Inverse folding.
């Protein structure tokens, strides 16, 4: 596997992660996952903007300019021969003797790699099951940081229940999925949690909001309760990896008629046209 290390591409065997890298010891770093479709980075500008936002909020300075990073990622994708997949980009505050406070003169470490990963077509077509789980995460999940234990434990709960996703509940309110955003539709109106400190403002979420606006569906960015989830006609999750995926059952209870919803399907086909504009004519 080829790795982008700051601004050079090296092989995985030659990569060393220092024992005192703050990402390793404190989870002191940030990341992005960007989809690759046909060797191109999908929604790169939005991901780059979020990476810069996460860096700014944690006072980490990115070690490379965004334009340079973009060009290096394209080289990495080419070298790794990934056609459909993702790139993972991670920036940690750097390496220094262990102490909680920010070290002085610490240089951030950036790594990125690309992996082949097919689109989850069957899940998108048939829908998935979800469970609810307590949102026990910290209060700045708008930052895409490496601290993911709350997400990891929730996802494991879903896996053990043979479900795809855990829908997180904080004080009775639906925030988001363990690795996705949650949308709900009732009587033609769409609800999703507002983009504040309680959720990650997903790039796919932002794109779906644009699509809903384009097709004239009323959207309310307001929190819904756990109880309201079960009164919805349609529910879907969004993420870079899941794209737009119908949720047909939560905690063993069918949503709507237990089949993927019509509006969800419409959004999926609009999304497809954005991924493959040339083939959609
Ligand atoms: N929320 C959480 C907690 C996530 O991990 C993800 C996946 N990165 C998302 C939402 C969806 O974000 P995106 O659409 O940018 O992948």
């Amino acid at each position: 596997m080829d790795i982008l290390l700051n601004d050079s591409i090296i092989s995985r065997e030659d990569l060393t992660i220092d024992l005192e890298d703050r990402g390793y010891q404190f989870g002191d770093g940030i990341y992005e996952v960007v989809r690759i479709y046909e060797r191109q980075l999908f929604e790169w500008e939005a991901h780059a903007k979020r990476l810069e936002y996460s860096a700014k909020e944690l006072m980490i300075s990115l070690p490379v300019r965004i334009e340079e990073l973009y060009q290096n990622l394209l080289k990495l994708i080419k070298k790794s021969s990934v056609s459909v997949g993702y790139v993972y980009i991670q920036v940690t505050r750097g390496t220094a003797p262990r102490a909680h406070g920010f070290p002085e003169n610490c240089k951030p470490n950036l790594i990125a790699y690309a992996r082949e990963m097919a689109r989850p077509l069957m899940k998108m077509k048939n829908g998935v099951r979800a469970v609810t789980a307590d949102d026990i995460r910290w209060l700045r999940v708008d930052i895409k940081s490496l601290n993911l234990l709350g997400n990891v434990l929730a996802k494991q709960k879903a896996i053990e229940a043979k479900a795809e996703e855990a829908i997180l509940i904080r004080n009775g309110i639906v925030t988001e999925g363990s690795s996705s955003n949650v949308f709900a539709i009732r009587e033609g109106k769409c609800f999703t949690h507002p983009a504040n400190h309680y959720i990650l403002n997903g790039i796919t979420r932002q794109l779906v909001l644009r699509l809903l606006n384009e097709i004239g569906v009323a959207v309310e960015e307001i929190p819904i309760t756990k109880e309201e989830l079960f009164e919805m006609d349609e529910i879907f999750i969004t993420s870079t990896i899941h794209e737009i995926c119908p949720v047909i059952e939560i905690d063993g209870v069918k949503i709507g008629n237990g089949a993927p919803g019509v509006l969800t399907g419409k959004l999926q086909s609009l999304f497809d046209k954005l991924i493959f504009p040339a083939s959609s004519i």
